[in-house]
Amino acid sequence: MNNKILVTGGAGYIGSHICKALSNRGFLPVTYDNLSKGHEWAVKWGPLITGDLHDTEKLCDAILTHQPKAVMHFAASIEVGESVEDPSAYYYNNVAGSLNLVRCMITTGCLNIVFSSTAATYGVPETRLISENHPQMPINPYGMSKLMVERIITDCNEPNGIRHMFLRYFNACGADFENEIGEAHTPESHLIPIVMQAAGGQREKLFIFGDDYDTPDGTCLRDYIHVEDLASAHILALESLLAGAPSNAYNLGTGTGYSVQEIILAAENVTGRAIQRDVHSRRAGDPPILVASSAKARQELGWKPTKSLDEILASAWKWHCKQNNI
Ligand code: UFG
Questions:
Q1: What is the pTM of this model?
Q2: Which atom of ligand 1 is nearest to the CA of 79?
Q3: Is the domain 4-172+225-252 a CATH 3.40.109.10 member?
């Protein structure tokens, strides 16, 4: 029986953790990745097709050759700050690339997609916890590009038979507990790996982007979710889609927000090292607070995030030490 899933961006940080979870669950992940940001070493649980989302022939051929039951779509540009500086690159990679993928899926008759979406589609929250029916009004091109892809896929539901699960992540972080894979972006822009670099001495200090927000300590609050908790939600969403559940969207977060300052203090505690920091001006495109209501995923998918902030930081530190021979 064919148990293949086409994973675009399977060589990347989140994609590779999902490939491991898919394999553990008896699926065969077929990675489709242009390796512009992803790593060949992270593809361990199935074949790698080195290809770009814009390469229609290669993409359609990958689907026709492997006949996957579904596509899990992670390949994208992912940095909020960069998207503000170079919006057209985000619309080209994320929107045009995804549109090409959807068109290949329609052409080849592979109609199930689990799409890696984001909390950045909501913009500035109007409520303390963000639920799925919160208005989607992104404040940066990254969030807008992901929202546009949600819209394209939704519009193709009825006429083309595409069925979807949108998973809107809050802040994915941490590493595989067996320490086989982890976060490895170049250059790194995400808070937790940067904190680890500052703790390990690979960076002199980290800059806190703004301490004048309307939050308890003035720094931004985010909902940090361990990548293995994300992975378990993906398996549940995929299996639900394959079992015939209607198209749907789910937030993936823990429901608890931590400030940048709290992350640094917790990381000092977990690593046992002092972390040098300075306050910098705000980073363009950053909402002050992003915290999920994940009630819907808990109720409808039976999902439960289980990893604490200390477990997130400990796994990130362990991975950082392995990468840097610490
Ligand atoms: N931050 C710093 N200093 C740094 C890096 C980050 O203060 O050197 C702050 C940011 O300003 C923000 C917080 O730490 O307040 C988290 O920043 P990240 O860059 O780690 O993550 P973002 O919240 O900007 O974005 C991440 C993903 C997106 C996703 C979003 C959803 O990169 O793909 O979470 O919340 F959409």
A1: 0.97
A2: 32
A3: no
What's the pLDDT tens digit per position in 249-269? 999 999 999 999 999 999 999
Q: Which of 191, 217, 251, 279 to mutate to test the pocket of ligand 1 (most atoms within 8 A of CB)?
A: 191
Which of 13, 32, 142, 258 does the annotation list as catalytic? 142
Share of the chain above pLDDT 70, in %: 100
For ligand 1, the distance from its centroid to the CA atom of residue 100, given in whole angstroms, is 28
Taking the CA of residue 119 as reference, the ligand 1 atom at the shortest distance is 31
Domain spanning 191-222+255-324: CATH 3.40.1180.10: no
Q: Are strands 221-222 and 258-259 parallel, antiparallel or unpaired?
A: antiparallel
Q: Domain segments of the chain: what residues?
A: 4-172+225-252, 191-222+255-324
- Which residue, by CA, sits nearest to atom 16 of ligand 1? 191
| Known catalytic membership, residue 142 | yes
On the CB side of 58, how many CA atoms lie within 13 Å of its CA? 14
Q: Which helix (H) or strand (E) holds 105?
A: helix 97-108
Element (H, E) at 73: strand 70-73
